[in-house]
Amino acid sequence: METTIKLSKETKGRLSSLDLSDKSKTFDMILNDLITYYEKSQSAHNKDYDIWKSSMKEYHNKRGIWEMQMKDYEKRKKENEKQLKNHNKNKLIWNELLSWAREQGFKETSK
Predict the structure, then answer these.
(1) pLDDT over 90 (residue 41)
(2) The whole model's pTM is what?
(3) Where in the chain are the domains?
């Protein structure tokens, strides 16, 4: 695959003056080295990105599980609070009933 790149003389001069390799390389060789380096870097970046993407997918899956567990916890917490209110209400009624029974002369029997 060939690519045509148009560069100014100034850019050619700067690229040639870089200490990329020995001075025996031609301008085309330097450009090929740069392109090769870019392709390797891009390949490494793509691998890193794929690893990051899969880890984020795993994170979101775990977060989804956590959110479902939190919703279940909140639901059970509300049910528990509701049962506790009901229990306290029934306990209050029972205590009032015992108090009324004592006033009426009923005696408690021990078990």
Answers:
(1) yes
(2) 0.44
(3) 37-103
